[in-house]
Structures are given as C-alpha cells and as structure tokens.
Amino acid sequence: MAAKIAYEDVEVGTELPAATFPVTRATLVQYAGASGDFNPIHWNETFARQVGLPDVIAHGMFTMAEAARVVTDWVGDPGAVVEYGVRFTKPVVVPNDDQGAVVEVSGRVAAKLEDNRVRVDLTAVSAGQKVLGMSRAVVRLA
Predict the structure, then answer these.
(1) For residues 8 and 73, what is the distance between their CA atoms, to the nearest angstrom?
(2) Using CA atoms, how far apart are residues 74 and 107, in angstroms rounded to an integer?
(3) Where in the chain does DSSP place strands (E)?
(4) Are 59 and 37 in contact (CB under 8 A)?
(5) How many CB atoms lie within 10 A of CB 43?
(6) Count of Cβ atoms closer than 10 Å to residue 115 Cβ
(7) pLDDT for the residue 21
(8) What are phi and psi of 78, to 5 degrees?
(9) Which has the closest alpha carbon to 122: 130, 40, 2?
(10) Residue 85's closest CA among 112, 67, 101, 108?
(11) Nearest CA-CA partner of 31 in 4, 77, 65
C-alpha cells in the first residue's frame, strides 16, 4: 500500500476530514480484551469513583489510536505514518448508558518537511474538553 495523497497537493493549513468516534462500555470491553489492559478504571464504575475519577474512562491508548485513524484514513496507508505522539490531557469519561461518549477528531497540516513528509496536528475533544495534547503525526506522502 502507498500513500494516496501527493506531497505537491498539500499546503500548510490543509484540513483533514474530521471524524467522530463513539465510545461505549462495550467498546471498552472489546479494547480491553484485545489489548490485555483490564485495569478496573476502564470497566468498574465503583472502583473508578473510589480512585477519584468521575466514572469509567476510556483507555488512553484507545483514544490515541482513534485519533490516529483520521491521519491513516486521510493518507490511505497506515505505513505512511513515520512518527506519532500525544500527551493525555483529560480522560474520556464513558457513562453506562446507550450513548456512551464521543471523541471528535480534526487535523490539519501544520508543516511541510523534507523527504515528502508533513506534520499533521490533531485535536481530539470529548464532552467539550480537549483529551489529547500535542497530538502530532509525521506522514510520508506520495
């Protein structure tokens, strides 16, 4: 697979298509099984509250991965992402109801680099709060 976006077709400020990711308690159980992260803050409301959280929270790595999907969907090749990092700033609180939570992710090209690479800055928000800080990916374009 190769990147579908050409370096010449991208400018600083180019916006990536935004995406919205629903997160339910069932999503957290599925992620826990896949990742092996069964920390009770991700599934046990009583425990989460006892340690000072408002409710069960999504796994940070799950939130990070969902945000990265905006980049991989845009570029068309997950292998085109050569660097990716975030700071976890706020948890994604997932209530025990039919709606759960929503993570809204947007991105834009922040810099054109050498070797057909660009830096993409991402913004991830849930319940009106920024949940990832310094969320950046470096992507090699076609």
Answers:
(1) 19
(2) 10
(3) 15-23, 81-88, 101-112, 117-126, 129-140
(4) yes
(5) 16
(6) 8
(7) 98
(8) -60, -30
(9) 130
(10) 67
(11) 65
User: Is the CB of residue 130 less than 8 Å from the CB of residue 89?
Assistant: yes
Predicted structure pTM score: 0.94
CA 74 to centroid of chain Cα atoms: 14
- Give dist(CA 27, CA 31) in Å, integer: 6
User: Six-digit token pair at 41?
Assistant: 């803050």
Take residue 76 and report the two structure tokens written for it.
């068309």
Q: How many CB atoms lie within 10 A of CB 73?
A: 12
pLDDT at 18: 98
Answer for the pair 23, 9: CB distance below 8 angstroms, yes or no: no
Res 33: pLDDT:
97
Mean pLDDT, consecutive 10-residue segments, the chain of 142 residues? 92 98 97 97 97 98 98 97 98 95 98 98 98 98 97
Which residue matches tokens 């308690």? 25
Tokens of 1: 């697979």
Identify the DSSP state of 3: -
φ, ψ dihedrals at 43, nearest 5°: -150, -15
